[in-house]
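Quick one:
INPUT:
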């Protein structure tokens, strides 16, 4: 039994050492990644950020598309027609000096060929003018949307980044607990070999070591999963190795007296720009009541004859002539079956709805700031309390360990002291995470997320 216990302990120790070396080897090959580096990488490589930039680029083409409606539209046309049977027209013979008679005449030729060019120019079309303004506003909308997308990318990366830190801190706590517990196990092993300790005490400490190993593996898996999530938010290949430096997680109090102006927040500005677009949409519908005026012009060249006109001459019975026209086209809407009125009322409803969204968004932004401020206040108090608590738990553990060696404390007391220290240390790192996440929300509520990359 002693050999079996010793073999179990050695196996656990060897496995822990191998994982430590593996983790250390990975860390030595990995690239140190600060929060600024992670955010900068994400803004350059994450698909969301790239797509937002493409939408801004696409808005330029939308402006050009609307502007084209205000520019001349020029087109060329051509056609070749063969008439196997020419239509006969019945006319009054009086026009040809034969009153009281009817004449049947076939007008036209077997072959007709026409080639020409036409031009159309809008002179007045209110919907075109409104569309140009709306297109420029659309570009501004996508520019604001790009900024909002970048802020969302920054928020996701920062949150994930800090969560990795907590997982790694928990891993360090378990590593320290494992080393201390192994030392206690060695003491108990020596006492047991000399008949000074019970077998149940040795078994309990071995079980404790096994549980620590299991917890460590679970946390190690959690670190890997969280790192993969961070890489995804960054647009980084999953196989890339990264290291989060601990120096980046100092807790520094922030100014909480200044209340941010939510009207300057990107979310609010985006809704305001959307409201502006809906106003233009309404004006575009109202433009349906306005008359439109356009200029049209055309020049054509026609060939007619009994044979195919292409390449033929008058000697072949084919004659060519040109004709042109210039005109003004006026369209005055009178009644559209209440279609325009219905569209205007629909646009009014959409405008009223987005005004409600603006009110709700402003309340939500104010709430986010208030909650972040409260969370930071509470986290600072919790961090200080847990820091002192962890320090005290460490002292209790050391005293209990000494008392156990001297026979003044039970193994249960020692294990309870270890558990208390672990809980205090985990609470401390959890409080830091709560603070950092609240700090991100506070920075976000001020519209200053991009300061994280400066």
């Amino acid at each position: 039994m002693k050999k079996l216990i010793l073999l179990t302990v050695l196996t656990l120790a060897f496995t822990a050492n191998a994982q430590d070396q593996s983790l250390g080897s990975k860390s030595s090959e990995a690239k140190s990644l600060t929060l600024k580096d992670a955010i900068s990488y994400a803004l350059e490589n994450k698909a969301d950020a790239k797509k937002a930039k493409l939408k801004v680029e696409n808005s330029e083409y939308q402006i050009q598309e609307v502007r084209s409606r205000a520019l001349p539209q020029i087109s060329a046309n051509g056609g070749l027609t063969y008439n196997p049977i020419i239509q006969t027209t019945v006319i009054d013979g009086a026009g040809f000096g034969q009153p009281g008679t009817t004449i049947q005449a076939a007008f036209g030729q077997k072959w007709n060929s026409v080639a020409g060019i036409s031009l159309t120019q809008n002179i007045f079309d209110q919907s075109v003018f409104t569309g140009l303004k709306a297109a420029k506003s659309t570009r501004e909308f996508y520019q604001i949307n790009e900024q909002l997308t970048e802020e969302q990318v920054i928020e996701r990366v920062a949150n994930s980044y800090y969560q990795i830190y907590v997982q790694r801190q928990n891993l360090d706590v378990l590593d320290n607990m494992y080393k201390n517990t192994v030392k206690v196990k060695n003491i108990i092993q020596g006492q047991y070999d000399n008949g000074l300790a019970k077998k149940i005490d040795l078994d309990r400490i071995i079980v404790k070591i096994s549980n620590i190993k299991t917890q460590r593996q679970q946390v190690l898996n959690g670190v890997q999963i969280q790192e993969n999530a961070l890489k995804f938010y960054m647009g980084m290949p999953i196989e890339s190795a990264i290291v989060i430096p601990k120096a980046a997680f100092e807790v520094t109090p922030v100014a909480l007296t200044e209340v941010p102006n939510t009207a300057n927040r990107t979310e609010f500005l985006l809704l305001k720009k959307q409201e502006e677009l809906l106003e233009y949409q309404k004006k575009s519908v109202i433009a349906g009541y306005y008359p439109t005026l356009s200029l049209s012009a055309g020049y054509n060249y026609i060939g007619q004859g009994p044979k195919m006109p292409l390449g033929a001459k008058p000697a072949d019975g084919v004659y060519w002539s040109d004709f042109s026209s210039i005109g003004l086209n006026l369209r005055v809407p009178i009644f559209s079956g209440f279609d325009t009125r219905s569209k205007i009322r629909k646009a009014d409803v959409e405008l009223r709805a987005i005004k409600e969204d603006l009110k709700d968004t402003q309340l939500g932004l104010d709430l986010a700031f208030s909650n972040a401020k409260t969370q930071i206040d509470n986290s600072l108090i919790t961090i200080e309390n847990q820091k002192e608590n962890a320090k005290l738990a460490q002292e209790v553990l050391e005293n209990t360990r000494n008392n156990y060696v001297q026979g003044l404390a039970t193994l249960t007391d020692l294990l309870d002291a270890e558990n208390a220290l672990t809980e205090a240390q985990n609470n401390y790192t959890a409080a830091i995470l709560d603070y950092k996440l609240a700090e991100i929300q506070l920075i976000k509520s001020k519209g200053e997320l991009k300061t994280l990359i400066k």
